Amino acid sequence: MQKLILLALVGLGAQLVDGSLGMAYGVTSTTLLLAVGTNPAAASATVHLAEIGTTLVSGLSHWRFGNVDWKVVLRIGVPGAIGAFAGATFLSSISTATAAPLMAIILLTLGLYVFLRFTFQGLPKGQLGKPLRKRFLTPLGLVGGFVDATGGGGWGPVGTPAILASGRLEPRKTIGSIDTSEFLVAIAASLGFLWGIGSENIDYGWVLALLIGGMIAAPLAAWLVRHIPPRVLGAAVGGVIILTNTRSLLRSDWIDAPDAVRYVLYGVIYLAWAAAIAYSVAQYRKNAIEDQRILAEAEAEAEAEAEAEAEAEAEAVALGSTPDDKDKAPANA
């Protein structure tokens, strides 16, 4: 029972992150399932089965808040589903000894990307309005779906930054569209795993626990996407993913590092993690202060213009005319 409650809390926290950043539900959940010794294919299958429900609720919630571009959902979601099915069948066909470190490498790479992207850049902003073309979204969906199924997560870390970097879709619609299209990816990956490893290798109690936590968090995350500082959250979550998967990789048969080496690396990661969070908080506050300063200057300028117009109108009235009277006077008067 304690494990199920913990999994529900994991699902809740992971969905809060995913719904706010457009990434990291699968990466976070799969990382923690692997940390307790779950078979890689079974871990990814468990997460994707839970995601069928969480992405459905998340997509509906984002749609209600106006965060979804349905053209983008279809153009990236369908090829994403194809890539996810292929990735699921691939992961199901390789041995656990090979799959565990391979998945750790994929998750570690995605964690590093999330960590560095949000610590040093935050959410990139560019010029909006230009359409996202199929020749961009189709290969992005195929790659994202394959990585998502083989790594237990990756749809968001692959798709969200790529679309944000294009500068063609505002951040909240990017996050909402990626979360909504993941529903198709989750269904295809789940079918691939059920076909590859069978249903008997999946703990449906764990699926239900992750599902309940994620469904509770999904509506809140869709609302928080407009309010939470994603830069800080991305740095924090990226650190968790890096630390956990570094641990899995160092303890795997591929490396089997001695305790002294592992503890030194853990210490370095903790220090870098703390520094990144502190830096992200500082940058967030700095940008917030700068935004407030710009807003205050704009308000002061508007107020000065209003006062100047009021003074001009008062002066015109004192002289027996108004600016409107001048405009109405005949041109040849």
From TrEMBL:
Keywords: Cell membrane, Membrane, Transmembrane, Transmembrane helix. InterPro entries: TM_pro_TauE-like, TSUP/Inactive_protease-like. It is found in: Cell membrane; Membrane. Residues 305-314 have a biased composition (Acidic residues). The chain crosses the membrane at residues 72-94, 100-120, 181-198, 204-225, 232-251, 263-282. PANTHER family: MEMBRANE TRANSPORTER PROTEIN MJ0441-RELATED, MEMBRANE TRANSPORTER PROTEIN YTNM-RELATED. Belongs to the 4-toluene sulfonate uptake permease (TSUP) (TC 2.A.102) family. This is Probable membrane transporter protein.
